[in-house]
Structure formats: C-alpha cells, structure tokens
Amino acid sequence: MLVLLDNGHGGLINGEYQTLGKRSPIWNDNSQLFEGEFNRAIVNGLIQELSRHKISYVNIAPEYWDVRLETRVKRANLYPKNNSFYLSVHANAGGGHGSEIFTSPGDTKSDKIATIFGNEYKHVFPDRKLRTDFSDGDLDKERRFYVLTKTRMPAILTENFFMDNEEECKNILMTKDGRDKIVHYHMNAILKVREKLFQL
Ligand SMILES: [Zn+2]
Questions:
Q1: How far is the CA of 4 from the centre of ligand 1 (A)?
Q2: Domain formed by 2-198, architecture
C-alpha cells in the first residue's frame, strides 16, 4: 500500500506565507495560524509515523510554494491506482466547529476509507463533532473537490477543525497536543485501511 500525502496549500518561505487567504484571524494575543503550515505539520508527522511502520508514502508537494491542484493530481496519477490512496489534509474555515471527511460522489473504495477515518476520529476525539451528512449512510460528506474527482485512485480529504473558531484554533490546531492527536487519528486510520482494504 502506498499513501499519497497532499498538504493542500503553500507554506512559509522566508517567513512569508505563500497562499492567499487560508489563514485564521489574528487573535487578541497576536497569534495567527496559516493553514499551509498546519497541513504540513500533520503531513510531516504522518511521514514520521509511516516510516516507523515501514509503510510506503509519497509527499505529493514537498515544495513550500503553492503547488497547483492540477500539478498535485498529475503527480498522484503517476502511481498505480490499485495499491495506493490519496490523502489530502486541511483545516476548515467559514464558521462552525468539528471536523469533516470528504470523498468524491458515488459509492467507491474512498467511502470505505472515509468511514474508517471517521471511526478513528471519534475514538481520538470523543467529545468533538464529526460533521457528516448521512445521505448515503457513510461517515463522509461528498463534494466534488478537484483532488477527489481527478485522482484515479481512491481519495479522501480531511478538514480538521475550524481555524476561524478561536477555541478550536488555539486549543487544537495551534497546540502540539492537538496536532499529535490529529496525526494519531490519521495514522490509526491508515493502519486499519491497510489491514481491511489493502493486502499487507
Ligand atoms: Zn485547505
């Protein structure tokens, strides 16, 4: 099994954030979260864990500038579709709380992967909300995100809490403990996905 890791947006180059928007408000204590930095922290944490478990991975966008979605998908599609899956990591915005797991529309292997991620999320964050629509009975919300519809392998996108929610931003997204838990839930899910959906 090969995990294709997508960190979503640009990072920081010489202290300058590379992506427009995609950041928290500036809080009263002057702190601010840049989503691309957060996404990288999770992806980098996963790389460490995947290496420890000897699971193959590819960092789809190791650069710090903002790699276009088309490029991310083109890179992913170089890999075989049968033994890989695509995981895009984000933090949410737009008012709300909790986390979401998206797949492409239709009932596919991606739905099974999203369900496993949803269950592991609930284990690690029992007191936090998992935002779902249960229209197809799965723990995911279906939307036509580019990286979900254009990748040829199963693909999911996790939106981890809301960076414009001060409580979640400061207590989860900006803390080591919160980030460790997010890595932990993703990693538990990847191990289950390997066990249940891919040959070891
Ligand atoms: Zn994002």
A1: 17
A2: 3-Layer(aba) Sandwich (3.40)
Ligand 1 geometric centre to CA of 159 (Å)? 7
Give pLDDT tens digits for 41-51: 999 999 999 99
Ion ligand 1: residue ranges with CB closer than 5 A = 8, 90
- For the stretch 15-35, pLDDT in tens is 999 999 999 999 999 999 999
CB 110 within 8 A of CB 104: yes
Cα(9) to centroid(ligand 1), Å? 6
- CA dist 2 → 21, 167, 196 (Å): 31, 35, 14
Report domain extents, the chain.
2-198
Cα-to-centroid distance, 91 and ligand 1 (Å): 6
Closest CA to 168 of 129, 111, 124, 117: 129
